[in-house]
């Protein structure tokens, strides 16, 4: 679905562009400048105190591991989709659904038998946590994502088998965590480029290193036939039905290999997640 190949070379002469394309470039550049200024003026991180939720027990080659699943209103919620829509996304092997999550540092603790173990604190949005309490499916999904996130961050190999502690909502103590400040541009909706087949594009910065896009496709019922190509500063979407075509230059450095997209059937939108490359 995502590809680093560009359909057309980037135009270098502004006079060869149409007025609408030039205006779109200017809007994106203005938003980029505002974001960079916001990141300079505001602190990069905020300290939060997660609240306890539930605790699971698993193990690694080094011994017992406990994961305290916590929550905080300071963590942004995921996109609001139904479980059926989410299940369809997962079955299609698409990563359009992302659960913002804060992964804490490991801390040494003692289990109920007085034996040494390691505990990790993982925090999600408080409202999403309440929803997760009533859904075994979401609980399983959060635990799986948390386990994989801890494995990637700390080089662990955790046993996928786990059990939830019945009478203990957390093990040890839950420490404060530093999370990235949520910074959104004041220009969140960048407008529609006029044209019979040009869809509405909405861009915003979900985190300092993650750009999200929503492309409105009201005449489509699914992603069949859509093509999406993403370069470091370019996004091109088309389709065999020739109902829509979008060619957008983006003044932020995108990581094409890590970008993902998924079609939201109820909203009739293509949701695109584009991690950003660090500025050298």
Automatic annotation (TrEMBL):
Q: Which residues form the PIH1D1/2/3 CS-like domain?
A: 207-276
Which Gene Ontology cellular-component terms appear in the entry? Answer: cytoplasm; nucleolus; pre-snoRNP complex; R2TP complex; RPAP3/R2TP/prefoldin-like complex
Provide the GO MF annotations for this entry: ATPase binding; histone binding; histone reader activity; phosphoprotein binding; protein kinase binding
Q: What family is this?
A: Belongs to the PIH1 family.
Question: What is the documented function of this protein?
Answer: Involved in the assembly of C/D box small nucleolar ribonucleoprotein (snoRNP) particles. Recruits the SWI/SNF complex to the core promoter of rRNA genes and enhances pre-rRNA transcription. Mediates interaction of TELO2 with the R2TP complex which is necessary for the stability of MTOR and SMG1. Positively regulates the assembly and activity of the mTORC1 complex.
List the PANTHER family. Answer: PIH1 DOMAIN-CONTAINING PROTEIN 1
Name of this protein? PIH1 domain-containing protein 1
Q: Which organism is it from?
A: Cricetulus griseus (Chinese hamster)
Gene encoding it?
Pih1d1
């Amino acid at each position: 679905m995502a590809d680093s190949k560009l359909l057309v070379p980037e135009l270098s002469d502004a006079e060869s562009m149409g007025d609408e394309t030039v205006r779109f470039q200017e809007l994106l550049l203005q938003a980029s400048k505002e974001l960079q200024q916001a990141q300079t003026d505001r602190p990069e991180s905020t300290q939060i105190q997660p609240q306890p939720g539930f605790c699971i027990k698993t193990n690694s080659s080094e011994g017992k591991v406990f994961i305290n699943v916590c929550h905080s209103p300071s963590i942004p919620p995921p996109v609001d989709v139904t479980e059926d829509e989410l299940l369809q996304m997962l079955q299609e092997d698409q990563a359009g659904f992302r659960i913002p999550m804060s992964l804490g540092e490991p801390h040494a603790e003692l289990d109920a038998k007085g034996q040494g173990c390691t505990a990790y604190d993982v925090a999600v949005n408080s409202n999403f946590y309440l929803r997760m309490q009533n859904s075994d499916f979401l609980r399983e999904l959060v635990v799986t994502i948390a386990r994989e996130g801890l494995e990637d961050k700390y080089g662990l190999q955790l046993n996928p088998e786990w059990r939830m502690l019945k009478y203990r909502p957390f093990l040890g103590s839950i420490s404060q965590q530093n999370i990235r400040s949520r910074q959104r541009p004041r220009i969140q909706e960048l407008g529609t480029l006029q044209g019979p087949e040009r869809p509405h594009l909405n861009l915003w910065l979900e985190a300092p290193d993650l750009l999200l896009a929503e492309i409105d496709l009201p005449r489509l019922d699914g992603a069949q036939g859509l093509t999406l190509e993403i370069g470091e500063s370019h996004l091109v979407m088309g389709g065999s039905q020739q109902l829509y075509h979008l060619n957008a230059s983006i003044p932020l450095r995108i990581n094409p290999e890590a970008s993902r997209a998924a079609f939201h059937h109820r909203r009739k939108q293509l949701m695109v997640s584009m991690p950003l490359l660090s500025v050298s």
